[in-house]
Write a structure and sequence with these properties.
With 138 residues, the chain is an all-alpha fold. The chain is 47% helix and 0% strand. The protein has 3 helices and no strands. Helix 1 runs antiparallel to helix 3. About 9% of the residues have low confidence.
Amino acid sequence: MDLRNLTLFRMSEQRMDYLNERQKVLSTNIANADSPSYRPRDLKEQQFRSLVREAQSPRIAFEQTDAGHIQSASLREPDMRDRKDKVSYESAPAGNAVVIEEQMIKVGETSLQYDTTSRLYRKYLEMFKTALGADGLG
């Protein structure tokens, strides 16, 4: 049985792959902190909802059938949308726009997200081993 065929494991692997690539991009930004006219780069953030939508086969549309029902997020007013992060406009006299502190914060956040995802992956794996009665197998 290949666990990569299971949605849960496939999504975890995709997340770890994304975070690994993001660390590479961020480390390139830090390495070029003194390069003239260098602009920092970052990967577009993965949208968890789109990963879940891809994994689901049937789509269920929620509908508010009574005014007294609690609305789902998709039915709420547009002012409830997520806010975007503020873009940094700081740049050095040579045109370099890398702010080391911002990059280091992103590296730390990415590392923490990777650690969390890998721990969840291991927990899922332990759950499957327990369910299969294979926790004694190493």
